[in-house]
Amino acid sequence: MSPSPIRRIAICTGGGDAPGLNAVIRSVVVAAINRGWECYGIRDGFNGILFPERYVEGGVFRLTRERVHDIGHLGGTILGTTNKGNPIHFPTRMPDGTIGEVDRSDEILQYFALKELDALVSIGGDGSLTIADALHKKGLRVVGVPKTIDNDLDKTMTTFGFDTAVAFATECLDRLHSTAESHQRVMVVEVMGRYAGWIALHSGIAGNAHAILMPEIPFDLDRVADLIHHRDADGHLYSVVVVAEGAAPRDGHTELQAPAEIGHAERLGGIGERVAKALQERTGKDTRVVVLGHLLRGGSPTSFDRLAAMRFGAAAVRALDEGLSGVMVALAFPNVNYIALEEVAGRMKAVPMDSDTLQTARDLGICLGD
Ligand code: F6P
Question: What is the pairing mode between strands 287-291 and 186-191?
Answer without folding.
Answer: parallel
